[in-house]
Amino acid sequence: MKKLENYVNGKWVAGSGDGLIMHDAVTGEVIGMSTTEGLDIPEVLQYGRTKGGEILSKMTFQERGNMLKKLALYLTKRKEEFYELSYRSGATRIDSWIDIEGGFGNLFANASLRKLFPNQSYHVEGDPIDLSRGGRFMAHHILVPKRGVAVHINAFNFPIWGMLEKCAVNWMAGVPAVVLPAPQTAYLTEAVVRVIIHSGILPEGALQLLSGMTKTILDTVASQDVVTFTGSAHTGRILKAHPRLIEESVPFTMEADSLNASVLGKDAVPGTPEFDLFIKEVRKEMTVKSGQKCTAIRRIIVPSDLVEDVQIALGQQLDKVTIGDPRLKEVRMGALASKKQVESFKDNVAEIAKTAQLVYGDLDKIETIGADAQKGAFVSPVLLREDNPFKNTGVHEIEAFGPVSTIMPYDSLEDAITLSQMGKGSLVSSIFTYDDQIAKEYVVGAASHHGRILIGNRENARQSTGHGSPLPMLTHGGPGRAGGGEEMGGMRGIKHYMQRCAIQGTPTTLTEVTGIYQANSAYKKSEQHPFSYHWEDIQPGMSIKTHKRTVTDTDIINFGNLTWDHFYAHTDITSLDGSIFEKRTAHGYFILAAAAGLFVYPNKGPVAANYGLEECRFLRPIYHNDTVYVRLTCKQKIDRDHRGKELPSGIVKWFVEVFDQEDELTAIATILTMVQKKSPFVQVNRSNIEGYLSKLNEGIKPKWGIMTAQHMIEHVEKTIRIGAGEIQDFEIATPEKYLEKVQEMVYNHKPMPEGHQHPLMKEGIVEDLVHENLIAAKTKLLEAFDEFEAYFKENPEAITKNAVFGDMNKFEWDLLNVKHLNHHFEQFGLFD
């Protein structure tokens, strides 16, 4: 019998012993078995802390985010291979989509968070705090990666999503993971981990997998580790009380199955869009994943006079649910994960039915399509009705993990809120109403007992992600029975794997520690104007002091006429009595504009654009005939992804301080500029081309490819002549729909890939040589370059085509020639 393997300590190994047998949920066939017996679990944890943790913790947020994005793209290209395995868990195509592509989506979503973090390995949180009147002693908060591992104990219902929604967050924080999937569906988790490890995208030690029951995993966790658990509330409480967690104060996040409620507003009567939406949502939450969702609707709370209507409408919807082999298109609901789950489901439904009435479905009878109901783990959707939910509390305490829900009545909205709270804490609740006052009253009353509340109505129906969909940017978790923890939630989730530390010191020291300029910090004198530096060369604290400007009456009047801002303090000096102004006052925005005129560098340079204004304060009035000057200081740098047809750049935040003639601070602002990054390529001109060509001889062999030195020179010459329009008798090889994206590649700083096949060259065959020898080829290349420059000097607006990148202007050809020459000069070691 096939054993699942564990990925630990950098290798795939099988556990010893028989382990637990895994069955196909549809056919009952044995898939294999999972075991972790014989593995040194403490060694596995330590390997993650040292091997994976050392690398991840030193990566910047941008590096981690781009790593996640790359992994998400890699997995998405291979998604289809996971669907066939997912069917064996009883999941339909839609069910599998939630698990597979929802999991990959978590990677994408968390990767995008890199834009909210600084370009360093740790985060600076909140605003600085002045601890002294003189401003020489201050504090700030930083968050650094914990130096342990994230131990994820996952549930069986989402073997891919459950792993990736957690790992994406801890990887972004700089912490490695050890994943323990539930044995029933561990085969699917193992398949995905194999692809992840094979990709080589993650650093070694960032992900380890224990494919089987591991009862001793918590025995050696340490204070820097983080443990998360998803599963039953009963099991979660046992784990939460583990002595080692208490002894080492290990953070423990529990996300437990809960008795989530959906409420129908009194205004949502039959015939309204909200009533229809409610019915469809309840049916969906009962049957998606065969009801095996921690966010599924278990309690249906409806107005007393609408119970019959809801019961009938739900029954009609459930009649449309076809059950059977999840591979079949006509099947809408598959099987539970295992026969054991079927037994548990039936037992718990029977418990609820001791007081509630079964009004739809049959625990013993089921019709299936394309599958044997006796061999697979199939059950029928079950709808119950509890007419006395305040007295009979079993419906608020017992969860049957499957396609079941219970209708219960309420008289007042206050009663509905109370019923929702009787679940003692839920992951999610929802209310369907078109009355915003009803929505407000329910949300405010019920929020204390729920981690998330969805308000559904006709206006958001098309865009709504639904009651049961946790989203990466929102908190997932809930109080009480739901576990009392939080997962995901954007930046909040990442911070769960980081240690917050308050730091105290001088502003100058804290500027160095945080990478953010702190007010009153010592300035770093800039040798030249800061706007003349590329993004990499700008440092927080880099500063200049500008020359001065006197503000005149004419300036104020002209600015008012230009902007139509005729506020009395700028225009009517007879109305100043009782105001804070003594005489005609300059507009605050004129002061900012004048400040920009003082600090802006007029020459063309790396600063590509003004990116915006983040904050500004006008501290003291500036009157006519006052004189101002500016202190411009780099406050912070933020990395930025390359996008579109623009040169790679980052964002620089500049702290602007405006002083008057008495050196009093009168205004402050933070402005943002887009600053271009340095090109990693050797720039191309005739002189350095000639210099590098002088190093090339026939004896030099390429580092890759089959071209000789002369073949390479003739190939480059041909490309330059194409740019000059001498050769245009070819078709553009790139399809029109991809051309714009491909053209963007000319602008980025990524080198050309080794071994790329040019569409105008025959694969595996070098072209016939044209010139007599290498010396003649070099001469012709230089002639081609001169002719290229002359052509565009005479025809500056000319457009010529390239076989890969389509129509290009001179600027784009220059970018391409730099990349192309760097690529081939590197190929022949001319830069060595």
UniProtKB/TrEMBL annotation:
Does the keyword Isomerase feature in the UniProt annotation?
no
UniProt GO MF annotations: oxidoreductase activity, acting on the aldehyde or oxo group of donors, NAD or NADP as acceptor
**Domain Aldehyde dehydrogenase, residue spans:** 54-499
Among InterPro entries, the record links this protein to: Ald_DH/histidinol_DH (IPR016161), Ald_DH_C (IPR016163), Ald_DH_N (IPR016162), Aldehyde_DH_dom (IPR015590), HotDog_dom_sf (IPR029069), MaoC-like_dom (IPR002539), PaaN-DH (IPR011966)
- A single Pfam family it belongs to is MaoC_dehydratas
- Top-level taxonomic group: Bacteria
What keywords tag this UniProt record? Oxidoreductase
Where the record annotates domain MaoC-like, the positions are 540-643
Protein name according to UniProt: Phenylacetic acid degradation protein PaaN
